[in-house]
Write a structure and sequence with these properties.
This protein is mainly α and 84 residues long. It is built from three helices and no strands. The chain has helices at 3-35, 45-64, 79-83.
Length: 84
């Protein structure tokens, strides 16, 4: 068997593993959805960031012994904006 055939066989083997993992993930997700008596809710990244920002700001000020500007702001660019 040539190098190309070995590579193709290994690639198909890996694809098979990936497909089986996806099937297992889907099955487990369905089981989890059926088992949960309540809906799991995740907060938005922006909400979490705004909640922890004051705490982290205070810790940085204490650690570095410097005052952080009051007009510091966070921005959350969309992925397209971030790439450009």
């Amino acid at each position: 068997m040539g190098e190309f055939e070995e590579f193709a066989e290994a690639l198909f083997g890996q694809l098979s593993v990936e497909i089986n993992e996806e099937k297992e993930i889907i099955k487990l997700a369905e089981m989890a959805k059926d088992d949960l008596p309540f809906k799991v809710k995740f907060d938005d990244l922006e909400k979490i960031a705004y909640d922890v920002f004051p705490v982290l700001r205070k810790k940085v000020e204490e650690f570095l012994d410097i005052k952080i500007s009051d007009n510091l702001k966070m921005e959350f660019p969309e992925l397209v904006e971030l790439k450009n």
